[in-house]
Amino acid sequence: MPQLGQDTLLEIRSLAVEFGSNRVVDDLSFRVAPGRTLAIVGESGSGKSVTSLSIMRLIDHMNGTIAKGEILFNGGDGPVDLAKAPVETMRKVRGKDIAMIFQEPMTSLNPVFTIGDQITEVLMLHESVSRKEALRQAGDLLEMVRLPDARALLSRYPHQLSGGMRQRVMIAMALACKPKLLIADEPTTALDVTIQAQILSIIRDLQEKLGMAVIFITHDMGVVAEVADEVVVMWRGQKVEEGPVDQIFANPQHAYTQTLLSAVPTLGSMAGEKYPKRLPVAVMDGETPRLVGEEHLQDTARYDQSPILTLKNLETRFDIKKGFFGGVTHRVHAVEKVSLDIWPGETLSLVGESGSGKSTIGRTIQQLQEATGGEIFFEGKAISAMSSAERHSLRQKVQYVFQDPFASLDPRRTVGFSIAEPIVTHGLIEGAAARQKRVDELLERVGLKAEHARRYPHEFSGGQRQRICIARALASRPKLIIADEALSALDVSVQAQIINLLMELQADEGLSYLFISHDMAVVEKVSHRVAVLYLGQIVEAGSREAVFERATHPYTKKLLSAVPIADPTKRPDRPMLEGEIPSPVRRVGDEPEIQPLVEIAPDHLVAQNAAG
Amino acid sequence: MASFLLKRILQAVFVVFVVTLTVSFAIRLTGDPALMLSQGAGSVTEEDLANIRQALGLNEPFITQYWDFIKGLFVGDFGRSFLGGTSVSMLISKALPATLALAFSSMFVSIAISIPLGVHAAVNKGKTADQVIRILSLVGLSFPNFWLAIMLVLVFSVMLQWLPPSGMGGFASYIMPAVTMGVILTATNVRLVRTAMLETLRSQYIQVARAKGLSETKVLYKHALRNCAIPLITYFGLQFGGLLGGIVVIERVFNWPGLGTLAFDAVAGRDYPVLQAVITVLSLLIIGINLLVDIAYGLVDPRIRNR
């Protein structure tokens, strides 16, 4: 049996993992010391998640095989090679010595069992305690992850909890048997920033308390900088670099690490700049990085013209709960008295967390959702006063790019068909040949090739698909594009390229963007102006400079402080963010208090309660 | 819940009304019971026939006859059989348990076979076991059920003499009818369980369950199966209706003293009261099963319960 040093909890030696004949992890080696945090970073397809699933041997159930190498784990009675351990041994290790939390808190808990059942299950399995004792311990665990009213939660079901609460339940479940190693696979990616900050601090505190090691898998360099002791960088299934976190950030050796770090949007990167800027992006071209794009000031906004879109006291509510006689008892107050303007060539960003109403505003403008009050003016004309033909043509002038490039293209249609569809719908170009020419042009415009038109969506990567979605949005020659979290699902280097593409299109075509995002660093990079939304109301709005550099509303400040900074020397000593994002659901008759905006400086509006 | 039940009961009343009206009307187009009754009785005059019709109440207009039937329903009186004058309620009360016993044992056989096979096929998707199970289910699907019944009788009763060929008696008499019905149902059920299971196995909570260190049996039969329950219960419920239809043929083959045999004889003899009663009871059964299915949704899935 191979030996492990006292200071090693887990050592992976030249691991190779295959799906069929496809090798997705190759010659991977690293070491985890007890009580330390190792971050594995890389983009989608780098093999980082497969590595974690291999340690747990969950890839056995996904038709993956460990082709080579050892996964030595020191559980207390000498090292065991998990790569070859029989299933019975693995079952004793899983959940007991090594526990795991996953990315999607909304789907990690079994919807048909209570929280209590799911936590006690693991306690009763590994610790052989009675159900009563297990329930008592489960309550303690929920208190440990700072869930309010922990005992009552035991009899609740997952769907009754928010995403952040569910992820805390997952953590409680993972820590039930005090594992020596916790594997966290993108545990905060699906969460809002303030909730992410909560979860990270909970994991950090409990790690200290229980003395466990953590393998933290993420694509977010900000999170890495905040939590990691050591870092392993993976690229195309291989480790390209490893080292202490300070060293990786201060002095990255491998070209890939360098490009990765250069692509990370960092909060404060635009400080002192008046306009957004296009910056060259380093991308990997084979084994060497190459700079694409050029520096360009984005002074495209035409404030001398009249606004292309104006919202006046927009209000969107929808009824949800019905009473016994079919009467409405509760409403979602998604958007409350929102007023804003977008000028030609301008990027206006809406930022906020889940339930802030930012997506509803986009959907209301695109007439996917009916406004319940207020007015939308497009090019000076109220939508409510438009004829149905005018409304139809409005759909041509306002286009949408959605978050998920995988779900927003019809998998059974060629890419060319999807791009041509708006042209056909709005009768913009007659004749198949002319249409084809326009589709080819559009594909080239977004950085793809004309021959891609005949292919199907599954043949493209996420970034390419988002380019296709942008080409489709451009097809009808719109004036305004609503980009709803359009960059959120993309890897950072791809994200940086798409940002440049959007800016380039803005400069060439004079497009306006309504940019909806929860990612403060990206918003800072792209916006001319910003509006911060909280529970359907704008709490702060103004130029990017004003909102980011002179943030006044406490909620804006809280959002900014919650963003992880991609610099390990600047680990924030932020106060623990408590509580949940409140719900926009209210009883009928319980009207929210409207906070009027007050101009505290030119082009800087703040909700009255915070304006002082 | 109360408004839900009320809605369901009103629905049931409407369904029973439409079904019985259609059936009562349609069967009266197919022949004269008076002629049927007097067959083989030597020379029958037109006067004799008129007397029979008068005695059975068939000279009344259809609406009156139907109204009498409906009135009877409310007091639980289905009238008397045209053939022999036995109380229809008594006939039904004898036949209903026999049919229910056969239907439930068929469902039981089918579920007991199809769940493990379907789960096994899903877990081994694309492998030999999956292929074999899928081919077998296709073969099962292609059998006409009466043919299978006759083959079973031939082998197990005539050749091997292990099982009684017909009639309802002890446990042994249930085996062949239940297996015949069960096999046909199983063929579709296996595929359904497999599909539902494949969907559920892709869920992250299944990975989480495995990461807890649970045994594969617990992962599959506790965590996964319960999440498949909604489509399965829906289908099993719908299937029960079809099963009651199919049972007419099987009861005939095995001479099973159930509602199927009763209905068959009633149609042959134009025994209106019996036929109307059987159809009414069958519709009520199907409605009842579907109501149970809806209630079961809430029991297995808390997300529906709280809505």
Question: What does the model show?
Answer:
The complex is a heterodimer of chains A (612) and B (307). By secondary structure, chain A is α/β, with parallel strands linked by helices. Among the domains of chain A are: 109-178, no CATH class; 309-379 and 479-611, P-loop containing nucleotide triphosphate hydrolases (Rossmann fold, 3-Layer(aba) Sandwich); 402-478, no CATH class. Helices cover 33% and strands 26% of the residues of chain A. In chain A, helix 5 packs across helix 7. The longest helix of chain A has 18 residues, at 193-210. The mean pLDDT of chain A is 89. By secondary structure, chain B is mostly helical. Chain B folds into two domains: 19-74, no CATH class; 98-305, MetI-like fold (Orthogonal Bundle). Chain B has 13 helices and no strands. The radius of gyration of chain B is 24 Å and the shape is globular.
Indicate the topology.
The complex is a heterodimer of chains A (612) and B (307).
Chain A: E1 10-19, E2 22-32, E3 37-41, H1 48-55, E4 64-74, E5 79-81, H2 87-93, E6 98-101, H3 105-108, H4 115-126, H5 131-144, H6 150-153, H7 163-174, E7 181-185, H8 193-210, E8 213-218, H9 221-227, E9 230-235, E10 238-244, H10 245-250, H11 255-263, E11 277-278, E12 281-285, E13 288-292, E14 296-297, E15 309-319, E16 330-342, E17 347-351, H12 358-365, E18 373-378, E19 381-382, H13 388-397, E20 398-401, H14 415-425, H15 432-445, H16 462-474, E21 480-484, H17 492-509, E22 512-517, H18 520-526, E23 529-534, E24 537-543, H19 544-549, H20 554-562, E25 585-587, E26 597-601, E27 604-607, H21 608-611
Parallel strand pairs in A: 3-8, 3-9, 6-7, 7-8, 17-22, 17-23, 20-21, 21-22
Antiparallel strand pairs in A: 1-2, 1-4, 4-5, 9-10, 11-14, 12-13, 15-16, 15-18, 16-25, 18-19, 23-24, 24-27, 26-27
Helix pairs in contact in A: 4-5, 5-7, 7-8, 11-17, 14-15, 14-16, 15-16
Chain B: H1 2-27, H2 33-38, H3 46-56, H4 62-74, H5 88-123, H6 128-142, H7 145-159, H8 171-201, H9 204-211, H10 216-253, H11 259-268, H12 272-300, H13 302-305
Helix pairs in contact in B: 1-12, 5-6, 5-8, 5-10, 5-11, 5-12, 6-8, 7-8, 8-10, 9-10, 10-11, 10-12, 11-12
